[in-house]
Amino acid sequence: VERSAGGDRLGPAGVLELFRTGRAKTRSDVVRLTGLGRGTVSQRLDGLTEAGLLVSDGEGVSTGGRPPRRFAFHSSHGVFLVGDMRAHHIHAAVTNLEGAVLAERMLSIDVAAGPRPILDQLIAGLEELLGGLGRSPIEVRGIGVAVPGPVEFATGRVISPPIMIGWDRFDIPGHFAASYSCPVLVDKDANAMAFGEHRWCWPDHPEMLMVEVGTGIGSGVVIAGRLYRGAFGAAGDIGHIPYGPGEGSGEEPTCRCGNVGCIEAYAGGWAIARDLRKLGHNVNQTADVVTLLRLRHPDVTALIRHAARIIGVAISDAVNILNPSLVVIGGELALADEPLLAGIREVVYRRSLPLATRDLQITVSQLGGAAGVIGLALMLGDRAFAPELIDEQLGFRP
Ligand SMILES: [Zn+2]
Predict the structure, then answer these.
(1) How many A from CA of 304 to the centre of ligand 1?
(2) What is the DSSP string of 159-195?
(3) Which end is more exposed in the chain, N or C (fewer Cβ atoms within 10 Å of the end residue's Cβ)?
(4) pLDDT in tens, 151-176
(5) pTM of the predicted protein model
């Protein structure tokens, strides 16, 4: 809460935020942190408790006299449904209102089958998970979907996606509206990962770049502690930065986006799979590349080292433009850990400006495969508990 000393103008939403972020546990904490009078604080706490947003959480430590009553954000007062989609699978999960995963499942898909069958499969999978938890669809407070393609964030539509054949401009939120009345948000996969990783693991790095190295290559940009989506949602699409001499040289690989010579066309999981097939390996998708990687096959290690240097060039460009203090590498191929990270580090530290690399950390994702679902749930939390919504719901007018 940025407006701590807001006097009586700090409404219930501001007080709720103190509990949601774990900064307050008792009425005295709120008085101390906000400067509101004790009577006003009690009024806010009563309103939030009656609305089911706070719960009594036992008693705290007494400093003489009656022990103070403790409060906590009511994280089980509803659930979020999330689906983190890639080309060949969806990580489906039910979370509580703080983003903790309550139940999850991997669904196999082919994203090119188009939106309707895949979203219906996702809905069915999520409803089975809900049922298994003994929760009902009316408890769903928000639905989040991450997709491997560019998303116009305001409308939740995928726009001219390279691999999501048949999804162009499909109304994903509208598809859920037939069965659910809660808010539905859609974002690109790297944004969901960046949001989760930043909020849970690196809140002290307000300038962070999360790079997803999976089947494709993308990034999520955090600036001043907030996810930066650009004008329409396309920010961070580093996979399609050109690498090498450019069009017309005749040696450039064709990318899934239709251009030639993109970073991804050399270094994405699909491109590495293509190069492994040329070497006689039986690989179809990124998961097969990961299998060879686990076996430490020298062919795949060599290709990953090569890919790392190319990805490093794109990251060093981004580092020069954005000057993050932290670059986090995630995605399926991030488990290649050493060859990938070493190659990226070498290029970024060599090519970026000294001031841009001063104290720059480059590391692998802490949340791993869970970053996307956690990020979606946390985004939904921010939307469901947006200050203006909560204040309005509780009849507070500043
Ligand atoms: Zn491309």
Answers:
(1) 19
(2) -S-SS-TT-TT-BHHHHHHTT--S-EEEEEHHHHHHH
(3) C
(4) 999 999 999 998 898 999 999 999 99
(5) 0.92
